[in-house]
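A quick aside before the break. I want you to see a complete sequence-to-structure record at least once, exactly as it would be stored in a machine-readable document. Don't worry about memorizing anything.
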Amino acid sequence: MKEKKVKTILVSQPKPESDKSPYFDLAKKCKVKIDFRPFIHVEGLTAKEFRQQKISILSHDAVIFTSKNAMDHFFRMCEATRITVPEEMKYFCVSEAIAYYLQKYITYRKRKVFIGRQKIEDMLSTLKKHKDCNFLLPCSDILKDSIPQFLKDYKFKFTKAVMYRTVCSDLSELENVFYDILVFYSPSGIKSLYQNFPEFEQNDTRIAAFGLTTAKAVDDAGLELNIGAPNPKAPSMTMALEQYIKKVNKR
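That is the input. The structure line, written in tokens, reads:
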């Protein structure tokens, strides 16, 4: 069956803050309308909910931050539970961007901030130098198993501390709005789609998914995956979209 030309795309994420986003370049290059709407959002646990985990923040002398969200909710929880973070606390940030963000909360001193390249695996040699630390891992309720497993495999002493949760956003304003392509970056986005629209039918809508777990969620929901990334010809979602749009729009 001939696929319809693409004129509109909805990306299930917040609108990029930078004008240099490749999505804006894609919109100009392919002459398509791209909207952004987060299908999921983050909510912090209350102090009471956190206390139910029976975790003592002050019994840890190091914190591992895997995201800016984790950092925001760590310091929010410290404030909510009236804890003053000791000056001696060490911070292990998996990327430079996360480490830079830390300046929002502490006086930056190199001796207590350690920076990875992008993933926690990149920090192995640094973490081993601090093997005696008792690490705290602030996270969401859907933290990837690979991160705690990595810490377990190398026998680091750590505590997983859930401080925020990912919840489905209210998308009721989209009920009668239709797009040629829906772009998803996580299984939670698919879950949100069906929580908001239980009767959703794909029809002529094309589905784009980034990552294997998102692609699996598309398949599990009985949807057809039309655009998958990364792939050998398109390492990014915008590249995959561009290739698809050029193919169907030139017909």
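Two observations worth writing down. The first strand starts at residue 8 and ends at 11. The chain is about 30% helix and 25% strand. We'll return to this after the break.
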